[in-house]
Design brief:
The structure is a single chain. By secondary structure, the protein is an alpha+beta fold. The protein is built from eight helices and six strands, in the order βββααββααααααβ. It has a six-stranded mixed beta sheet with strand order 1-2-6-3-5-4. A hairpin with a 2-residue loop joins strand 4 and strand 5. It is globular, with a radius of gyration of 18 Å. It starts with a strand and ends with a strand.
């Protein structure tokens, strides 16, 4: 296990092992939970999956994942104490298990997944029509929370137990907050996070 300080805000933690056939990669930004900003943060990566400069649609991301031997890439929106963690996580076949012909040609699943992560963080399009679809889906989930005992109980418990404390905040936001998000809001927030938020890159695999 080794940890590398890439720069003032980026840290790489690396576990090199051949114990598993699959490798894991995650890129996580950690920021204070905030009543206004956390809902916006939570939309950044899901909205990016709708299209980037290279991958113009979610279908393009799915196609690229299949090309990378069904690598699974998804978003992270979690909590760590009083902080919110957002980013991406990926599970993929270790490059040592691809064919010798593919390796000789320069094909690398890890490189492909890293390139997808780069697109999601640095080149999202945030098109208005796509965002409206994501907002509708998020609002439907928020409204549907009342019909699921566990989800609603967890939400209400946090509100009653912690009140306005950061741990009591809903990281996914409320209906009115999601409805008011614009593409420009996402672009400004992404730029601010990429410029200053602490980023932790975790990798476990044969590379």
């Amino acid at each position: 296990y080794r940890t590398y300080r890439i720069n003032d805000t980026v840290t790489l933690s690396h576990i090199k092992t051949d114990r598993f056939k699959n490798a894991r990669l995650s890129v996580v930004l950690t920021v204070p939970a905030d009543a206004e900003l956390s809902p916006l943060n939570s939309m950044l990566i899901p909205a990016a999956f709708r299209g980037t400069e290279r991958y113009r649609s979610f279908r393009d991301f799915c196609r690229r994942s299949e090309e990378l031997d069904a690598a699974a890439v998804s978003d992270i929106n979690g909590r760590s104490g009083d902080c919110q963690t957002i980013g991406i996580k990926a599970s993929m076949l270790n490059d040592t298990y691809i064919s010798s012909e593919d390796r000789a040609s320069g094909f690398s699943i890890l490189d492909g997944v890293a390139e997808m992560a780069e697109e999601l963080f640095f080149s999202p399009l945030y098109r208005a029509e796509d965002l409206e679809t994501d907002k509708k889906n998020r609002i439907d989930i928020i409204r549907g929370r009342k019909n699921h005992a566990y989800a609603y109980g967890k939400y209400r418990f946090a509100k009653l137990m912690f009140g306005s404390d950061p741990y009591g905040l809903s990281l996914s936001g409320e209906e009115d907050q999601i409805a008011g998000i614009t593409p420009d809001d996402l672009r400004r927030r992404r730029e601010a996070l990429v410029a200053s938020a602490p980023a932790d890159i975790f990798y476990c695999g044969t590379a």
